[in-house]
Amino acid sequence: MSENISLPKGAEAIVRIQDDRVIKQRIPKRYRVEMLDEKIRKERTRAEARLISEARRLGVPTPILYDVYGFTIEMEYIMGQPIKEIISPELCEKAGEMIGRLHGGNIIHGDLTTSNMIWNGERIYLIDFGLSFVSNNIEDKGVDVHVLFQTLESSHRDHEKLIEAFCRGYRKQLCNADEILTRVTEIEKRGRYA
Question: What pLDDT does residue 13 have?
């Protein structure tokens, strides 16, 4: 693949595929003072790259980073399908194990959806760490899982089986998984009555 393919533009970045690499470039925000905007974009770019690397060290499959400069991250292009398109209880259990490892290392993904998980035929890769941060807070981990559960509920008919499978995998990797899953239930209740 030597073509230059642009992907849909997000709120924070432009992402394109070029020469088997994904190039993610944070875009300026015109509403911010230019110097402040540059500082924020550089810090967020470095933080995203660092968290991708830390997640990989925890055993979470992520794209390999090739280069980080200015507002740009160059990384491996993962060939595969978003699990959103091929969802199954087996894949959800694997996703649960992966997120259990991530949360065990106190990394919060921040945009945990089935579109940000790519199945390459052997393993699930977690992508798009643009909203990620570090926290050992039960609430933050609960919100992360809650976002995924909302995605499953809104996109898949058999979401209850998928959520059960995710929880099985999550419990395999994380000793305090039940505490976090209880918090997810509390977050759901708060959302219903807000």
Answer: 84
Neighbours of 147 (CB within 10 A): 16
What are the tokens at 145? 């899982």
CA distance linking residue 120 with residue 126, whole number of Å: 11
Determine contact, residues 107/132, Cβ cutoff 8 Å. Answer: yes
Active site residues: 111
CB 51 within 8 A of CB 65: no
Q: In angstroms, rounded to a whole number, what is the distance separating the alpha carbons of residues 167 and 96?
A: 6
- Check: CATH 3.10.120.10 for 4-76? no
Q: Over the range 81-100, which residues count as b (16 or more CB within 10 Å of their CB) and which as e?
A: ebbbeebebebbbbbbbbbb
Q: Minimal CA–CA distance to 48: which of 125, 94, 119, 108?
A: 108
Record: fold of 81-193: Transferase(Phosphotransferase); domain 1 (1.10.510)
**Rounded average pLDDT per 10-residue block, the chain, 194 residues:** 54 85 90 86 95 98 96 96 96 98 98 96 96 97 97 92 98 97 93 58
Which residue, chain included where needed, has tokens 């088997």? 20
Q: What pLDDT is recorded for position 4?
A: 61
Say what the pLDDT of residue 8 is.
Answer: 54
Q: How is the chain split into domains, by residue range?
A: 4-76, 81-193
